[in-house]
């Protein structure tokens, strides 16, 4: 174990006491409580997993969550099975038809996105739900499957205590503008470039 | 609903068929299976939540996961309660003493980090565990609570099928170098700047 002499310990203590004062003042200055519009975007991994991590945190507090998957189709995923442990406290809706290069059918993709958005509206209106995850909504907006203005104003008109997380690359500027919290997941390094394939528990 | 004419539908189909060919070739080229060293770093939100989302995904596949929290102390968190739903498939260890500005005691912080690292070694050696989350290990490394070289070589010497996720700001370059997957969570916009306080289910 690293050895600390008395001087270093004292210096550390003084520095941290100062930092605590700054921290306390900052925390004290924050008083607003509100349902947040959260956007996880960018090319890196973690957009959907972080949204599900947040849903898990909410479930840990005894709340209910809703999930709408806009793109992913009805394939088996670990997260869906895991959320089954929380019974009807998770309202899960996989509404996509699969990736656009799988369906190859624009009209069908648009119809699926419309149905998914209708489900999102229902979940957002349900007062028993504290957090709604709109997984890959950004993709549906990027390809103009849905009307951006309609979606953004509906998100802005959400219940004041409702948290919503939107995921997917290439978030539209109007959505970023409307959001309270935006994280851009940047890809620094990816194992796919080293020939590693999609693995159970990591990618699905 | 947006109307699509036949020409647009055809163009879309041709483009997506082409994209599918590229996609299939890419997927086919990836054959390696290995336990990944994953690093979630950067100033943005989502580092820890994405790690827990990954743990959840792994649990959904019936696997066991281990969690060591290097900095957070024994305060109540939603994620910990939520993981209780999975019984002994989650081995959870909150080993921190709280933020450095709370303890104000360098020797105590170092001792806590050492104990946490010992626990991490035990979990990584347990063949029943598929994924280990080392939450905020980057902070312990940044403040030199632990020997960087020792930690990195131990991570590199992990079982070939074990996935490890390390979280925290300011990941050390040697750790990034050793990692398979590195995501930098960038903060584009944060509600704390708008006076919103830490809320249940979002920050804890």
UniProtKB/TrEMBL annotation, chains A, B:
Keywords: ATP-binding, Cobalamin biosynthesis, Cytoplasm, Nucleotide-binding, Plasmid, Porphyrin biosynthesis, Transferase. InterPro entries: CblAdoTrfase_CobA, Co_AT_N_dom, P-loop_NTPase. Its EC number is 2.5.1.17. Residues 8-27 form the Cob(I)alamin adenosyltransferase N-terminal domain. It is found in: Cytoplasm. It catalyses: 2 cob(II)yrinate a,c diamide + reduced [electron-transfer flavoprotein] + 2 ATP = 2 adenosylcob(III)yrinate a,c-diamide + 2 triphosphate + oxidized [electron-transfer flavoprotein] + 3 H(+); 2 cob(II)alamin + reduced [electron-transfer flavoprotein] + 2 ATP = 2 adenosylcob(III)alamin + 2 triphosphate + oxidized [electron-transfer flavoprotein] + 3 H(+). CDD domains: CobA_ACA (cd00561). GO terms for molecular function: corrinoid adenosyltransferase activity. Pathway: Cofactor biosynthesis; adenosylcobalamin biosynthesis; adenosylcobalamin from cob(II)yrinate a,c-diamide: step 2/7. Pfam families: Co_AT_N, CobA_CobO_BtuR. PANTHER family: CORRINOID ADENOSYLTRANSFERASE. Required for both de novo synthesis of the corrin ring for the assimilation of exogenous corrinoids. Participates in the adenosylation of a variety of incomplete and complete corrinoids. Belongs to the Cob(I)alamin adenosyltransferase family. This is Corrinoid adenosyltransferase. The lineage of its organism: Bacteria, Pseudomonadati, Pseudomonadota, Alphaproteobacteria, Hyphomicrobiales.
């Amino acid at each position: 174990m690293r050895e600390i002499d008395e001087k270093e310990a004292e210096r550390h203590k003084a520095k941290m006491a100062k930092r605590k004062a700054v921290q306390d003042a900052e925390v004290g200055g924050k008083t607003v409580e509100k349902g947040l519009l959260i956007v996880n975007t960018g090319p890196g991994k973690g957009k959907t997993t972080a949204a599900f991590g947040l849903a898990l945190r909410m479930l840990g507090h005894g709340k209910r969550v809703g999930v709408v998957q806009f793109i992913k189709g009805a394939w088996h995923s670990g997260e869906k099975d895991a959320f089954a442990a929380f019974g009807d406290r998770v309202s899960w809706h996989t509404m996509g038809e699969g990736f656009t290069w799988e369906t190859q059918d624009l009209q069908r993709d648009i119809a699926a996105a419309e149905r998914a958005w209708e489900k999102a509206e229902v979940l957002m209106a349900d007062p028993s739900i504290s957090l709604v995850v709109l997984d890959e909504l950004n993709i549906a907006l990027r390809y103009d499957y849905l009307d951006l203005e309609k979606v953004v104003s509906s998100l802005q008109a959400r219940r004041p205590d409702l948290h919503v997380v939107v995921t997917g690359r290439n978030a539209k500027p109007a959505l970023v503008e409307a959001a309270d919290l935006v994280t851009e997941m940047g890809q620094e390094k990816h194992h796919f470039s080293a020939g590693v394939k999609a693995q159970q528990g990591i990618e699905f």
